[in-house]
């Protein structure tokens, strides 16, 4: 995500070599979704460069490859999983959670498969699961079965909150595109571990995005007061203002929990000079 074109020259200095962009991003936000790993397991050297560009307390939430979660649906994936875990090993403590995003077709009848998969995972990592079948949110039996499978592995349930996005019809090309692709999921805010993860999708209009996250500010403040350490990812359909919005969300939470650490100061985008 740190290579997003709309951020170049605004939130990140431009031009920047590709192996410097994450370092600049890490001065805006202290966590990132590792979404590119969904499409292919990265080279170990590439992951090592991510580690070099970030401090040990920077948080990566790294998505498992779709080969494991979508194509093979968590079955017969030992070799692919072993290769993935070896690739991300250079992150060390920065690998805050391995993110198991499951397809919308993965429903309550598939929970035993998920439970078996979780039981076989190395305890050297923590895991977080994102489901997209509405039955997990609406059917108490399905909810309970999933929660039991997660509890056995001390895994978190990642809610993807799209309620603010779907509250009114789209008004931009980016919103219209997201309207057809993003899941329309019921709201969920129950943390299962001491390190909950939230994904929030707002609108391209800043005011609508901020209005939609008000309840998350309340929830995150309560989690912090309980001693939890949440990670919150702020998205909009075009993501053009995402780093600024993430810092604004953090500022709103910190105004109510002053002991929360401040985010780092962005690296100044100094003009190029010949002298």
From TrEMBL:
Report the InterPro entries cross-referenced here: DUF72, UPF0759_sf
Superkingdom of origin: Bacteria
Protein name listed in UniProt: DUF72 domain-containing protein
Q: Which organism is it from?
A: Rugosimonospora africana
